[in-house]
Amino acid sequence: MKAVEVLIVDDHQMVIDGVKSMLNSNAEFSVTWQATCAEEALLCLESQTPEIILLDINLPDKDGVELCGIIKKKYPTIKIIALTMLNEVSFITRIIKAGASGYLLKNTSKSELINAMKVVTKGDQYLAKEVQEKLVSASFGQKKEAFIPKLTRREKEVLALILEELTTKEIASKLFISVATVETHRLHLLNKFGARNTAGLVKMAVQKGIA
What we know:
By secondary structure, the protein is an alpha/beta fold. It folds into two domains: 4-139, Response regulator (Rossmann fold); 153-207, Arc Repressor Mutant, subunit A (Orthogonal Bundle). Helix content is 51%, strand content 14%.
């Protein structure tokens, strides 16, 4: 029986090595490819088609939720499991909506990881117990803990200028980049903070003590 081929997307090599070590002894799965950023993952998918992707949400060049949506649109048969340290409800719901079949935290055990991969391979959804509890708690209106997303240097610069109430054109001029590039960074910031518009982004940045 051919092993299920797996792609790991994580910006920490130690995590990749750790997951590979966990799966090496299991003949049902084979970590065939790895990528440390979204760009590498998309390049890999141009020539290879893994059956499962273990995807971190916090990547250096693109939000994992956004990457999940891109992959599922282009390669709908690939099963994606979020493997992350983030347990905020907003991330869980957004990546599931983007097409992920599972959500695991990085403290997961080898047995749970393998079980989750078996479940999604069959076409079902797998959520870690802690993740399920988070969703249940949220449904009863319990308070969500604060989380400050990982931002690139340029995103931090753009956010700082947005907080200074500069327009898109003014930001582009100040940073010597195009208006389109500013808009792209703005979209990434909205996605990372889970905000619907710039006003919401500013409000969340203030709440998280970034402003």
